[in-house]
Amino acid sequence: MFQFLKRYSILATATLGTAISLASMTIAKETAIQMPMVEDAAIGGIKSSRGGTTNIAAFVTNFKGKAMVCGFWNVGNRISARSKSSNMFRKGMQTSSVRYKNKILVRDLTFMNEVSDKNYVTGAKANCKLSKHTWNPAMTNESINIHVMRRTIH
To answer: N or C, which end of the chain is more exposed by having fewer CB within 10 Å?
Structure first.
């Protein structure tokens, strides 16, 4: 009987340890990484039919051997709050991507944070998303493109 309890105890400890490890990985995966915006970031945008634009700045960096894309966005003065909160605006960010050559590094730019006009500058914190692609030193910010949807926001 003692041997049974001992085996059960080891199994319970191992199971609990695995559960804690899995919980830690889940928490770590949801934790946002932020990096300061670089001077040579790639710039893209989404145009509104009412004349405003959403400016998107992004850069790529090496994170543990993988390409990591960081970026933020800023709404131009002429885009209304209604347009900014619309499904069309969200769809625009969801269907946008950052690419290196023909490879999509990240799709769905809703991970990026919004910044004010004052903070749309080098050094401001930008949210990051890890790509599945291996880092390549040739992945310079001049070589990445921000692809945005073709439709305009109404």
So the answer is: N
